[in-house]
Write a structure and sequence with these properties.
19% of the residues lie in helices and 39% in strands. With 185 residues, it is of the alpha+beta class. It is elongated and about 60 Å long. The structure holds flavin mononucleotide (FMN).
């Protein structure tokens, strides 16, 4: 009987287990991945986000954000993103790349209604996120469904590293129907 990290299928299953755990468990490391985009002038940008859904079947993830935030301008210029998670209890590094579609307005209004009041506070601030302000607290939270956006990430490529006694690295891509390929770590 092999260990989960000894086969590419085992690694693939561990990936989606970790992402599902992240969605379900606020203390799981996959709950707060680092999400990277490319700015309109070509700079890499990374920030912490909350992982909201992870669909293994579709290889798709969602993140919620403020439509006025700079990452939206970046995604409008270049609709590609990357996600990074380190899962210490599995010694597993997860790196994903994908195409990111921005959903807002009427299409996601029902979802907004399900978000608790305290969480709605994260979507809508005056002035817009990133605007220079004279003092640190010179802003007001203004939850607004009009500034709420869902980032739908269709994963195209996955790179997993398992740092056990031996190091193992595997790559998976949508074009290869997620068939695992070992890589030199
Ligand atoms: C623990 C934590 C969770 C966060 N979750 C989100 C999130 O789910 N969505 C989001 O847009 N920003 C989230 N943020 C804020 C972002 O990290 C970032 O500061 C903000 O979105 C502005 O980024 P931008 O200027 O690159 O668009 C979170 C920050 C922290 C520290």
């Amino acid at each position: 009987m092999s260990e989960w990290f000894e086969t590419t299928d085992g690694l693939w299953a561990a990936l989606w287990d970790a992402l599902r755990d992240g969605v379900a468990d606020a203390r799981h490391p996959a709950r707060r991945p680092t999400f990277a985009t490319v700015s309109p002038d070509g700079w890499p940008e990374a920030r912490t986000v909350v992982l909201r859904t992870a669909d293994a079947q579709a290889a798709a993830l969602t993140v919620h954000t403020d439509l006025q935030s700079d990452k939206i301008k970046s995604l409008q210029a270049n609709p590609r993103g990357a996600l990074h998670v380190w899962v210490p209890e599995k010694d597993l590094q997860i790196r994903l790349q994908g195409h990111v579609a921005i959903a807002s307005g009427d299409a996601i209004r029902p979802l907004w209604a399900e978000i608790p009041d305290h969480a709605q506070q994260s979507y809508g601030v005056i002035p817009a996120p990133g605007t220079p302000i004279p003092e640190a607290l010179d802003y007001v939270k203004a939850p607004d469904p009009a500034t709420f956006a869902v980032l739908n990430c269709a994963v195209t490529q996955v790179d997993l590293v398992h740092l056990g006694k031996d190091h193992r690295r595997a790559q998976f891509s949508r074009v290869r129907h997620w068939q695992g390929q070992w890589l030199s770590p």
